[in-house]
Amino acid sequence: MVGVRAKDHDDKRQLILDRSAELFGRQGFHRTSIAEIAKACHSSSKAWIYHYFPNKETVLFTLLHEFLELAASRVRAAVDQHSDARVRLHAFVLECLRIYAEYRINHAVLFSEMNLLPDEQRAEIRTLERAYAQVLRELILAVNPAINLRKHQTTALTMIAFGSINWTYTWFDAKGPFSLEDVAELTTKLLMNGLEGI
């Protein structure tokens, strides 16, 4: 019976996170109330939400924290299956696209709301973001080690490359003419040709 309760607890917690992500992404963190989250979870009681999360900020922190942990773990595992630099970069891009396709939430809005978190939580999210970006940074240097010889260039190129990947969710249509694999290949070619020419 304890196992059943634990699973039910996890399911309800995940429901709150899923509905909160949808609401935050659609109307912003400030405009979303705990009452609205409860209603989206088919509950009439705000107290039900507080049983799982002490406040709205903790919901946002949990969303960001769990997403970044998952993303960093998945891309690292995908990359580590290969040795060739180009194949590793392609694996990174494709895994990112798969993650964003599976979790179709407005990441840009969620991460822009991060400044509303307490300092300690915000610092923790920043640390996870750096770990995620570090995987791509390593791949960029594997493609062209000379990039690291120029001050600040590695970080700039890492963020530029991330931008081309992260914003795919705003236009990619699974029913459109391109598959995720097609987009990953196009993005990898774009990055490889650009990185090798720097």
Short description:
The protein is mostly helical. It has helices spanning 2-27, 34-40, 46-50, 56-79, 85-102, 107-112, 119-143, 153-166, 180-197. It has two domains: 1-53, Arc Repressor Mutant, subunit A; 55-197, Tetracycline Repressor, domain 2 (Orthogonal Bundle), CATH 1.10.357.10.
What is the topological layout?
Layout: H1 2-27, H2 34-40, H3 46-50, H4 56-79, H5 85-102, H6 107-112, H7 119-143, H8 153-166, H9 180-197
Helix pairs in contact: 1-2, 1-4, 4-5, 4-7, 5-7, 5-9, 7-8
Model description:
With 198 residues, the protein is mostly helical. The chain has two domains: 1-53, Orthogonal Bundle (Arc Repressor Mutant, subunit A), CATH 1.10.10; 55-197, Tetracycline Repressor, domain 2, CATH 1.10.357. It is 72% helix and 0% strand. The chain contains nine helices and no strands. The protein has helices spanning 2-27, 34-40, 46-50, 56-79, 85-102, 107-112, 119-143, 153-166, 180-197. α4 (56-79) packs antiparallel against α5 (85-102). The longest helix has 26 residues, at 2-27. It is elongated and about 60 Å long. The model has no long low-confidence stretch (mean pLDDT 87).
Features:
2 domains, 198 residues, Tetracycline Repressor, domain 2, 9 helices
